[in-house]
Amino acid sequence: MADIIELSGDIFQVDLKECGYEGRTAGYFVRGKDGWMLLETGPASSAGAIMEAVKLLGIKPEQLKYIAVTHIHLDHAGGLGVVAKYFNEARVVLHPKGARHMINPSRLIAGAYNFWGKEKMEQYGEVIPVAEERVINVLEGDVIDLGDRKIEVWETPGHAKNHVCYYDTRTRGVFSGDALGVFSPKLSRLLERPVLRPATPAPDFNGELMFKSLYRVATSKIEQIYFTHFGVGRPSQLLIENILGQLSVFMEMGRSYSEQKGADEKNNEQKNLENLQLEMEQYIRKGLLGPKKNLEKTGILTEQDWEFQVNMIRMSAGGILQYLNKVKC
Ligand SMILES: [Zn+2]
């Protein structure tokens, strides 16, 4: 049974059960007078969860007008081609820098294979091309009109060059993709404060652009954030300030390592990365466990929760160092 949560303002959050995990990746269905819009398909292996949600929500295939993704990382858009095939009327909405790689996904697949490896790629499922004539390339300021509600496009590069957020004017909520970090509703509930992490993976992370995008969203009139990972977060200002703060800390940590040079450059880079990963991990461990020292021991924070946090921090450390090394040259 698909997990669907009805949010206010005719928005429905669907757990896409990414690679079998609950509470990791969400897609959102938005209802307007002229039809429906789906934001984020998840990977191809999540197409079943989408189809089940469509059935439960009573959406007829011709009523789905738009399928939009925030960027083309496979956990957000890997299923775009597969899902689009079921909905002949739907236009596919994304940034032009991403669109070309969904129309011809060979480079996207090769890059993802390199990054994720065979096992994960099999879990994500097969990426199939999107027909070019169905694509709407969107840029800053473009508007998707659903009749009685409008969805604005905000360009928010930093996590990826092709990243956009979608802003729903009715609920003043932003579908944030990965631009505003990865939110953990479970840990936020347990710790009674927001727990989220900036997502800064290699090779696309650009610190300057991410800061700019964060300021741009922070100074907009938003009231809530629809996180792809995962669920609704508010108050938005507190969440964005939290991400800005963490990003500043991690970038400074990264800077101190990227400035360390050694005789053996290759070995040194690997060592810097390991040290940064360790320092970031210790930092978030202190933040998570500080207020409730026994959290880990009580088993409330499961092995899986912890592993997820640590893996993400490790990936983020790699992106930060790679970016800082690039700007140094
Ligand atoms: Zn991403």
Q: For the record, what CATH class of the largest domain applies?
A: Alpha Beta
Q: Helical proportion?
A: 40-55%
Give the CATH superfamily of the largest domain. Ribonuclease Z/Hydroxyacylglutathione hydrolase-like
User: How many domains would you count in the coordinates?
Assistant: 2
Main structural class: alpha/beta
DSSP E strands, number: 15
Query: What is the CA-CA span between the terminal residues?
Result: 52 Å
Low-pLDDT residue intervals, each spanning 5 or more residues: none
At CATH's second level, what is the architecture of the largest domain? 4-Layer Sandwich
Label the overall shape. Answer: globular
Mean pLDDT: 93
Bound molecules: zinc ion
CATH topology of the largest domain: Metallo-beta-lactamase, Chain A
Strand line-up of the largest beta sheet:
1-2-3-4-5-6-7
